[in-house]
Amino acid sequence: METKPARVRILDAAHELMLTVGLARATTKEIARAAGCSEAALYKHFDSKEELFVRVLAERLPRLTPLLDSLAAQPGRGTLEANLTEIARQAALFYEQSFPIAASLYAETQLKRRHDDALRTLGSGPHLPIQGLDAYLRAEQAAGRVRADADTYAAASLLIGACAQRAFAYDATESGERPPVDDFAARLARTLLGGVSVAPQPAQS
């Protein structure tokens, strides 16, 4: 049986521990032990736990940032509705999977501050999806498919914010279930289009 490379094992172990005990309590020592390597070996691949967290988000969760970058680089491809639906779907899945990992940060102010400082240094952070979607909408604006007077940053904030809210807003409902992701994404995209699209949207039956 082929053994996975150390980097892959470390990412797998970090992902699992961050999900089960939370980011705040998942130490590099425990991650290394779960990966079957030394803590020194872990630091050969990752400079810090913060970098490990960023790599888990980038490599183990739905690929939201590459999708946004790709769409922004090629405006006019596909339909606006299909693109926004896929963005909303990926964003909803990303936050659904990342929220349990990151939630523990908010319980410890000092840790959260250190973590935010590290994310700035690494050029990462939760603001990036909003900026990425804003960049895509501005590219579509320049291509003539988004209204010239549309507030693209507000539109991006609304869509990404709704997807993040879905990760935890429904836990206390009677069923405790989130809205199904495909229907949720389609409805978000359709509603957003009503505010930004140049083309009139078909009436819903």
Which key features would you list for this structure?
205 residues; mainly alpha; 10 helices; 66% helix
List the topology elements.
Layout: H1 6-20, H2 28-35, H3 39-45, H4 49-60, H5 64-73, H6 80-102, H7 109-122, H8 128-142, H9 152-166, H10 181-196
Helix pairs in contact: 1-2, 1-4, 1-6, 5-6, 5-8, 6-9, 6-10, 8-9, 9-10
Helix content: 55-70%
Give the N-terminus to C-terminus distance in angstroms: 56 Å
Order of helices and strands: HHHHHHHHHH
Residue fraction in strands:
under 5%
Beta strands, count = 0
Low-confidence runs: none
Mean pLDDT, nearest integer? 88
Describe the structure.
- The chain is an all-alpha fold and 205 residues long.
- It contains ten helices and no strands.
- It is elongated, with a radius of gyration of 19 Å.
- It starts with 5 loop residues before the first helix and ends in a 9-residue tail after the last helix.
- The model has no long low-confidence stretch (mean pLDDT 88).
Structure in a nutshell:
The chain is mainly α and 205 residues long.
